[in-house]
Amino acid sequence: MNSKIAQIISQLPSLNFEKSKKFYQEILGCELANEYDDLLIFVWDGIEIHLWKCDDEIVAENSSCYIRVNDIEAVFERYKKVLGDTIALKKQPWGMREFYIIDDSGNLFKFGQPIQ
User: Fold this and answer.
1) Cα-trace Rg, the chain
2) 90-91 β-sheet, strand order
3) Which one, of 98, 105, 10, 33, lies nearest residue 62 by Cα?
4) What is the SS3 assignment for 32-60?
5) Which of 34, 66, 72, 111 is a plausible cystine mate for 41, CB 3.0–4.6 Å?
């Protein structure tokens, strides 16, 4: 028996599926894999991410996901092309280089790579 975790899939709230589909596809570059009445399933750089239908702004504005990347400069440049100066790459005192993106519902995505 293999008791190791095989995969972790982020499940974040969406206040509006139509706006979320547009944001995740056009801004983040995700592929919509499946759509149900109360769930959207995207594939983002080969990783699944789920959005569930939510009507509480407070829940969405207090949800986040931390994404570690191997080349923070390349990922930052990719999103800077579509988001412009709304994002900034910073060195953090906890030893990470990070930038943040907030989606259409208020979910926070933190991208980071250890400072080497």
Assistant:
1) 15
2) 64-68, 108-114, 96-102, 90-91
3) 105
4) EEEECCCEEEEEECCEEEEEEECCCHHHH
5) 34
Neighbours of 11 (CB within 10 A): 14
Q: Identify whether the C-beta of residue 20 lies closer than 8 Å to the C-beta of residue 104.
A: yes
Query: What would the two tokens of residue 33 be?
Result: 């894999």
What confidence tens digit (pLDDT) does each residue in 44-103 have? Answer: 999 999 999 999 999 999 999 999 999 999 999 999 999 999 999 999 999 999 999 999
**How far is the C-alpha of 61 from the C-alpha of 63, rounded, in Å?**
6
Using the structure block, give the residue that is written with the tokens 């949800």.
63
Segments of 1-116 assigned E as strands: 10-14, 31-35, 39-44, 47-53, 64-68, 90-91, 96-102, 108-114
Rounded Cα gap, residues 17 and 29, in angstroms: 16
